[in-house]
UniProtKB/TrEMBL annotation:
The lineage of its organism: Bacteria, Pseudomonadati, Bacteroidota, Chitinophagia, Chitinophagales. The keyword Hydrolase applies. It comes from Chitinophaga silvatica. GO terms for molecular function: hydrolase activity, hydrolyzing O-glycosyl compounds. Keywords: Carbohydrate metabolism, Glycosidase, Hydrolase, Polysaccharide degradation, Signal, Xylan degradation. It comes from the Bacteria. The keyword Signal applies. One of its GO terms (biological process) is xylan catabolic process. Residues 164-277 form the Glycoside hydrolase family 2 catalytic domain. It holds the Pfam family Glyco_hydro_2_C. This is 1,4-beta-xylanase.
Length: 347
């Protein structure tokens, strides 16, 4: 099999929303004003999923502050954070206030945020209120899709999602604490396939109608999803992608995607058993001027330090799958955190 992306990708001559998309020059001018973008996908260790992070009863500012401090201490400047429309639907004003609180905490640590709206991954059913406990030892056992198959059962939900996206983006469209808007995580995943097209097309149109000051992206993730990949590239101001494979695969992805001449950020990588590590990948991405956002900061209720696809009940793996810190701030591997800090501070 070819490496995870991209030899097959076709250069797109004309994006669907061409009049709205940043020019190559505008995108690169923006990127030149940024530091080397490095960081992690962030969920506080006390949250089992996005709802537990964002609902009022479990919005844990103390943990968020403490754990973003761990990130800042190793030089990270960006966190990728998932939202969920149900938190907004239950309490739109409170949800936006909590986003402001989160952003204030992050800013205090010198960290900017990539917010993610929709996601086709993991659990299809969700309800507001107290969230289920993690299944012991199971990777991402309670992570939620957004909106998942509910949109197939309730077509009117599309109208609600339009109001949601426009409300959030209108509120924060000029907020310089937000680095990037990531509109849809891994469209078509977990069996959704072509059912994801209507929402994907719509969220691009909704986001463009707001004219945010921040760039927009939809990350590439599956080499077999040619039509999705073409659309995502054609409608992204900056190009983002996921790659959990070895250095040869990462290099192939970077070399192909840099042919579009737009800024490039890997928004998911670092799976230690796959030889996707900080030591192997950060130098490569830094040399290529590619942003580096790994999966996972603190091992907690999401349990992404356990391997994906496991059945549960196993002891904590000797080699963590993802994540960098224990909840008390101890690193999984102190040599690793020393290396990350060195990469982030040596220019």
């Amino acid at each position: 099999m070819k490496s995870l992306f991209y030899c097959f990708l076709i250069l797109i001559s004309k994006p669907i929303y061409a009049q709205e998309i940043w020019s190559v020059e505008q995108a690169n001018n923006w990127y030149q004003q940024q530091p080397w973008i490095t960081g992690a996908n962030f969920l506080p260790s006390t949250a089992v999923n996005q709802l537990e992070m964002w609902q009022e009863e479990t919005f844990d500012t103390a943990t968020i502050n403490r754990e973003l401090g761990y990130a800042a201490a190793i030089g990270f400047n960006t966190m990728r954070v998932y939202l969920h429309h149900l938190a907004w639907l239950e309490d739109s004003t409170g949800f936006k206030n909590r986003i402001h609180q989160y952003l204030a905490i992050a800013e205090n640590h010198g960290i900017k945020t990539i917010f993610v709206f929709f996601d086709d991954c993991w659990k299809d059913h969700y309800t507001p209120g107290p969230q289920p406990l993690p299944i012991p030892g199971v990777h991402n056992s309670q992570w939620l899709k957004d909106p998942g198959s509910l949109i197939d059962q309730q077509p009117a939900l599309m109208d609600t999602l339009e109001v949601y996206v426009k409300d959030i983006m209108s509120t924060f469209r000029n907020d310089n604490r937000i680095r990037i808007w990531d509109l849809y995580n891994e469209p078509g995943h977990f069996g959704h396939g072509d059912k994801s097209w209507p929402l994907l097309r719509n969220v691009v149109a909704w986001a463009r109608s707001i004219h945010p000051s921040q760039p927009i992206t939809i990350g590439l993730w599956n080499p077999n999803f040619t039509a999705f990949n073409e659309f995502q590239i054609a409608n992204s101001d900056i190009i983002t992608f996921h790659n959990y494979r070895d250095t040869a695969s990462m290099l192939s992805a970077i070399d192909t995607l840099q042919s579009y001449n737009r800024p490039l950020i890997c928004t998911e990588y670092m799976k230690r058993p796959n030889n996707s590590t900080f030591a192997t990948h950060m130098p490569l991405m830094k040399a290529k001027k590619v942003g580096a956002i790994n999966w996972g900061l603190v091992a907690g209720k999401s349990q992404t330090n356990y391997p994906q696809g496991n059945k549960g009940g196993e002891p904590v793996p000797e080699l963590w799958y993802h994540d960098i810190f224990y909840p008390d701030g101890r690193p999984f591997n102190s040599d690793e955190t020393t290396f990350i800090l060195k990469m982030n501070t040596n220019h």
